[in-house]
Amino acid sequence: MAYYCYMVLCSNGGYYTGWTTDPIRRLKQHNAGLGARYTRMNSPCQLVYIEEVADRSTALKRELQIKMLKHPKKVTLCANATLNILSQFSVDPSPEE
């Protein structure tokens, strides 16, 4: 099973960082108001960063590392990230019906 750390850009310009096994499902949950309180208050969200990690423990540690970054560093991380992994997913932020 693959694990991912991800960042979404919220409508207020802030980033939300989390981990998941299915980034697209998680994005849809955030945009449907079923995700974290922060994304419920600041949706819609756009997936801007995904990083595949080895296991759940590594995902949790990496999530914390990213959350500790200041906003400008998160912007740089997203800008420098190769978006090839994003192309593996059909990013449709609308919730499932």
Brief overview:
The chain is of the alpha+beta class and 97 residues long. The chain contains five helices and three strands, in the order ββααβααα.
Summarize the helices and strands and which ones pair or pack.
Elements: E1 3-10, E2 15-20, H1 23-31, H2 37-41, E3 45-53, H3 56-67, H4 71-80, H5 84-87
Antiparallel strand pairs: 1-2, 1-3
| Number of helical segments with 4 or more residues | 5
Which CATH class is shown? Alpha Beta
| String of helices and strands | EEHHEHHH
What is the radius of gyration? Answer: 12 Å
Number of strands: 3
**What general outline do the C-alpha atoms trace?**
globular
Domain tally: 1
Structural class computed from helices and strand pairing = alpha+beta
Tell me the CATH superfamily: GIY-YIG endonuclease
- Please list the strands of the largest sheet in the order they lie side by side: 2-1-3
Q: State the end-to-end distance.
A: 26 Å
Q: What about the largest sheet?
A: 3 strands, antiparallel
CATH architectural type: 3-Layer(aba) Sandwich
Overall pLDDT confidence: 85
- Strand content bin: 15-25%
The parts where pLDDT drops under 50 for at least 5 residues are: none
Helix content: 40-55%
Question: How is the CATH topology named?
Answer: GIY-YIG endonuclease
